[in-house]
Design a protein that fits this description.
Structural class: mainly beta
Strand order of the largest sheet: 1-2-5-4
Oligomer: single chain
Distance between the termini: 57 Å
Number of helices: 4
Shape: globular
Largest sheet: 4 strands, antiparallel
Helix content: 10-25%
Number of strands: 14
Strand content: 35-45%
Order of helices and strands: HEEEEEEEHEHEEEEHEE
Length: 258
């Protein structure tokens, strides 16, 4: 009986070890002077509890030379992540090697990586709303609901224009439904969901405080949103930690560039 139990435990361990999600290369295409690579998970989970980003990436050309000057937004995405490489547009690129690691983030309340802050009307403004037991381990991460007074204080002379035909203008705070500020760390991302959407709002304005590196987002969620609807906006935070991260290696050889 003891041997059978041990055997079952070994089988369960091996199943757990090899049941990782599989990374697939959804496309590798040449666009003028760059090559774009798209990576995603085979089962394509596409909600706020399944997020991926590139951890490491090395790409080689057909001669085995490592391509440099790559750029990608190293933030968590729901569906796929993109990387681009600058190339000589006159050279032919037929095959490449793509190797690296994807970070697979599954936020969880039990693992202290998911926090439902509740409705906007119940949240105090202009203070860090991330739990203190999280900020004690990393004092640089930050999230706050902010008001117009705090933004005016930080950006007193800010003016902008959308096109060359327009004059510079100040911020029309009444045109936004609410404002928040956040700061991630190199090793710990803070992801915000608004009414269960990660890509929230339109006509948004983003400002960055050069001294603190805190990012300020002014959000328009809905045309003619009422005060009651604004009060009921739901805010959720997902804060990266190692307990909620799975690292998925990938190695694609002789990838055809289309």
């Amino acid at each position: 009986m003891k041997k059978l139990t041990t055997l079952l435990l070994l089988i369960m361990f091996n199943v757990s070890l090899y049941s990782q999600e599989k990374v697939i290369l959804s496309h590798a295409i040449k666009m003028y002077d760059m090559v774009e690579i798209s990576l995603e998970l085979e089962n394509k989970p596409n909600d706020r509890f399944h997020l991926i980003k590139i951890d490491t990436l090395a790409t080689t050309n057909y001669n085995g030379q490592v391509l440099h000057n790559n750029f990608f937004e190293n933030i968590f995405r729901r569906a796929n992540v993109l990387a681009r490489y600058e190339i000589n547009e006159n050279k032919k690129y037929k095959n490449m090697g793509v190797k690296g690691v994807i970070k697979y983030f599954k936020p969880s309340e039990n693992k202290n990586s998911y926090f439902n802050l509740g409705k906007l009307k119940n949240l105090e403004k202009n203070i860090n709303l991330i739990d203190q037991h999280i900020t004690k381990r990393n004092s640089t991460i930050y999230f706050a609901i902010v008001d117009s007074a705090s933004i005016k204080n930080i950006f007193p002379d800010f003016k902008y224009k959308i096109s060359d035909e327009e004059d510079f203008k100040g911020i029309d705070f009444k045109s936004y439904d609410f404002m928040y500020a956040y700061k991630s760390d190199a090793n710990q991302d803070v992801i915000i969901a608004v009414d269960e959407e990660l890509d929230h709002g339109y006509n948004n304005l983003t400002l960055t405080d050069k001294e603190t590196k805190i990012i300020y987002k002014l959000i328009k969620l809905k045309r003619n949103m009422t005060a009651g609807e604004r009060d009921d906006i739901k805010i959720e935070l997902m804060i990266e930690n190692e307990n909620s991260i799975e690292r998925l290696p990938f190695d694609f050889k002789n990838v055809e560039i289309k």
